[in-house]
Amino acid sequence: MSLEEHAMTQSVDWKIVLIDDEEDIRQVISIVLSDEGYNITTAPDGETGIRLCKELSPQIVITDIRMPGMNGIQVLETLKERHPDTEVIVVTAFGEMKMASKALKLDASDFITKPLNEEVLLIAIKRAQNRYISRKQLQERVSSPDTTAENHLKTLTKHRSFHKDLIESAMDGALICDENEIITALNKPMAQIIGYSESEVIHKMHLNRLFSLKEKERFKIELREGRYGGKNRLSLYETSLLDRSGTSIPVQISVTALLDKDQ
User: Fold this and answer.
1) Phi, psi of 109 (to 5 degrees)
2) Share of the chain above pLDDT 90, in %
3) What angle, 0 to 180 degrees and rounded to 10, lies between the N-to-C axes of helices 72-82 and 97-105?
4) Residues 239, 219: contact at Cβ < 8 Å?
C-alpha cells in the first residue's frame, strides 16, 4: 500500500454492515471488529441488511451465503446494482468453492469460509479497504483532465490484481488458470499438496501436469457436460492429482470456469 492509500485508509470512518442469521456469529464478529475500531452494525437477514445499507451507506458489507429468505448472492447482486462502490465480503461454508466463485464473478471483493478465523477476517477487510480506496482513486483520476493513459493502466492493473490474491484467504488448496490452462495463481495449501513452490508453478506450469491423461480427459468431459453442478462447473468432484514425484493423490475438488459474457 502506498503512503497515499495508507493515509486515505486511516482518514475514512469505516462503516461495516454484517448480515448473518446466526446471532452468536453476529455477536462474535461485532466484538472483534469493534475492538479493531470499525463502526459495525448487524442484520439478521438480507432484507434488513439491504435497508441498513440504504440508511448507513457502509463502505463494506459482510454477508453469509446461506440464509433463509434473501440469500447472500441475492444480497450481493442487489448491493452491486444499488450501491456499486460498496465492497462485499461473502462468507461460505467449508468447501463451497462454487458459491465463492459465483460471488467473485459478481464482483465480491473477497470470500472467507466458516468456521471464521479472526486473522483471515481482518485480512479480508483490509483487502476490501484497499480495493475501496483503489476504486475511489481510479474514479478521481478518470475524472481529472490531466490523467495520462499510463496512470489509468497502472491503476486498473492494481485493481485487477486483488482477485488474483483472493485465493490466499481460502483454507483449502486453490488455484487459478488462464484461458490457456496455464496456472496463474495458487495458494500455499495447494503448493503443499502438489509439492511445487509457487515460483515453479505460476505462469510456468500447464494444468495438464497435475493430471494423468485419463483423469484430465474425464475432468474435461465432466466439466463440459455438467453432471456435477452444471455446465462449466464441478462441485465436490472426486479425482486425483499428480504431485511432484508423480504420486497420485485422491482429492475432492470444486471448479468454476469464469467465461466472458459473450461466450
Assistant:
1) -80, -25
2) 40
3) 10
4) yes
What pLDDT, in 10s, does the model give residues 142-175? Answer: 555 555 555 555 555 554 554 555 555 556 788 8
- pTM over the 0.85 mark: no
pLDDT per residue over 13-69, tens digit each?
Answer: 899 999 999 999 999 999 999 999 999 999 999 999 999 999 999 999 999 999 999
Full DSSP string of 196-248: --HHHHTTT-BGGGGS-HHHHHHHHHHHHHTTTTSTTEEEEEEEEEE-TT--E
Tell me whether residue 111 is exposed, middle or buried, using C-beta atoms within 10 angstroms of its C-beta: 0 to 12, 13 to 18, 19 or more.
buried
Alpha helices in the chain (DSSP H): 3-11, 23-35, 46-56, 72-82, 97-105, 118-143, 149-165, 188-194, 198-201, 213-225
The whole-angstrom distance between residue 7's C-alpha and the CA centroid of its chain comes to: 25
Lookup: cell for 140:
478521481
